[in-house]
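Fold Annotation — chain and its backbone

Encoding — discrete vocabulary of local shapes
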Amino acid sequence: MKENCFKNIKNLIFDMDDTLYPKNLGICKNGWERLFDVFRTDKKDEFGISHISIDDYKTHGDELLRRHKNFDWDSFMAYVCENDVSSIKTNHKLKEFLTVLPHKKIIYTDADYRHMNKVLQRLEVENLFDQKFTCFDAEFHFKPSEKSFNSFFEKTKINPLESAFFEDSSKNLAVAKKYGMMTILISEEQGDKAFCDFTFPSIEQALEMFK
């Protein structure tokens, strides 16, 4: 049964935050708090979006920011992603899996390159991925937007039907399932079986399937 299930999987696609390290570290949560703080503070003036309220942003999301042709995404993402990652420890088991598994391995994150590099360095796995795809590569379309997924598939040249996607977000996996990806939820909670093929509490336990 395992052979039939995994025989076509050639690519392992990894979300990063709250997936490659434990969610209880609170790093991703802090990033969301920093993002919302932009719309509650004078940071709105700094980024030229003083007319956008927090309710506007929660309703319409990043599309509001894309309407500004000269919006400074680099500075915006640098502020949002400026998180303390010192609580992340080296994951020797993850390193082992990434080293020995023969699949192509790709990071697919909504974070910027600076944050991604800091996290992967803390885990000591920065050199174990074949490709890395960030919000800059997606032209600031974020998961679960289909524009983000389309950009990911186009630029990485991978076949979603040959790919397993590890994510902590059920919403993101719901879209991935539409593309035919094997969907693996990394969470202490069980995912919706309609679009989560597997659910594991940690990335290490999930990767055991591919040994």
